[in-house]
Write a structure and sequence with these properties.
With about 280 residues, this protein is an alpha+beta fold. It contains four helices and 15 strands.
Length: about 280
C-alpha cells in the first residue's frame, strides 16, 4: 500500500502512469483549487481494505486533509491515516495505528530549530496518547527546499503496540522535493503482533512533588498566557505546562502484565496405616 500527497495530478492522469503498477485499487481525496492538495492511495488486491475521507480542505482557513484506510493482514486490522497538516482532533487512535504524511509541524525533537503551533500540538499528542514518533537524528531530511535548506515535515507515528515491529525507511528524492517515507511493519507467523495497547504509566510514588509544585508555579508565567485568547487555546497552554512539569518530576514506565493464578492447595500426603 502507498499514499501520495498532495496528489497534484488528477486520478485519471495517474491511471496511465507507472506508479499505478504498484497497486490494484486506487482511492482518492479529490484535489481542491489549491495546488498543494489532494491525497491518492493505492492498495494491492492481496489486502482487504476500507477507505474513508476524514477531512477535506474545503473553503475554510484550515488546510488539513486526512484519509483513513483500514487494512487487514494476517488476521490483524491496521488503521492507517494519510495526513496533510492534520487536525489531531479528527483522529481516533487505538492499537495498530499508523499516521504518515506531511505534518508541517516544527519542533527541535525532529530536527527543526523552531517550534510552531502544529509542532506544539503534536508534542502534546505524543505525550498523551499511545502514539510514538519514529525518528532518528541520523536519518536524512525529507524535504529539500530550492534554497538548499533541508527539513523533515514528512513524519511517521505509530501506536506503541507495533513500534518495535515498525521500521522507518527514507528513499531518494524522485524529483518532487520530498523524499518518500516507508513504514515497514514486520509480522511473524508465530507472533502476529506485540502486546496490544501498551502505554506508559506515571509512578506517582516516586514523584518529586516539591519540584513539580515549584516548576508549575513558575512555568505559566514563562508561557505568558494571554487570557484574552480563545478558552481552548488557554487550556492547551496550561495543559502543556502541566505535562512538561510532570515529565520532569514524575518518572514513567511500563508495568509488566502478570497472569493471575488461582490459590494453590497442597494435598495431604497419605500415610501407611500399618506403620
Amino acid at each position: 500500500m502507498w499514499t501520495l500527497l498532495p496528489s497534484w495530478r488528477q486520478t485519471s492522469r495517474l491511471k496511465n502512469s507507472s506508479i499505478t503498477s504498484l497497486a490494484d485499487t486506487l482511492y482518492s481525496l479529490p484535489k481542491y483549487r489549491q495546488i498543494a492538495s489532494g491525497i491518492l492511495v493505492g492498495v494491492s488486491n492481496s489486502l482487504s481494505a476500507e477507505f474513508k475521507i476524514v477531512k477535506e480542505m474545503g473553503n475554510s482557513e484550515d488546510k488539513s486533509e486526512i484519509v483513513k484506510v483500514n487494512v487487514w493482514k494476517q488476521g490483524n486490522n491496521f488503521t492507517i491515516y494519510a495526513v496533510y497538516k492534520p487536525d489531531f482532533t479528527s483522529l481516533y487512535v487505538t492499537s495498530k495505528t499508523i499516521l504518515i504524511g506531511d505534518f508541517n509541524a516544527h519542533s527541535p525533537k525532529w530536527g527543526y530549530k523552531d517550534t510552531n503551533t502544529a509542532g506544539k500540538e503534536m508534542e502534546d499528542l505524543l505525550s498523551t496518547s499511545v502514539l510514538g514518533l519514529l525518528y532518528n537524528d541520523t536519518d536524512s531530511s525529507t524535504y529539500l527546499h530550492f534554497n538548499g535548506a533541508q527539513t523533515t515535515p514528512d513524519l511517521l507515528l505509530v501506536s506503541s503496540d507495533i513500534s518495535a515491529n515498525t521500521k522507518r525507511i527514507i528513499l531518494d528524492d524522485p524529483g518532487s522535493g520530498h523524499r518518500p517515507v516507508i513504514a515497514k511493519v514486520t509480522l511473524t507467523q508465530r507472533q502476529r503482533i506485540l502486546d496490544p495497547y501498551i502505554r506508559t504509566s506515571w509512578n506517582f510514588k516516586k514523584a518529586n512533588w516539591r519540584s513539580f509544585t515549584d516548576m508549575l508555579e513558575r512555568n505559566p508565567h514563562q508561557e505568558r498566557i494571554d487570557f484574552s485568547q480563545n478558552p481552548d487555546k488557554i487550556g492547551k497552554v496550561i495543559t502543556s505546562s502541566i505535562i512538561n512539569c510532570a515529565k520532569t518530576c514524575i518518572p514513567r514506565g511500563r508495568v509488566k502484565r502478570y497472569k493471575a493464578s488461582g490459590p494453590t492447595t497442597s494435598r495431604p500426603s497419605r500415610t501407611n496405616e500399618n506403620t
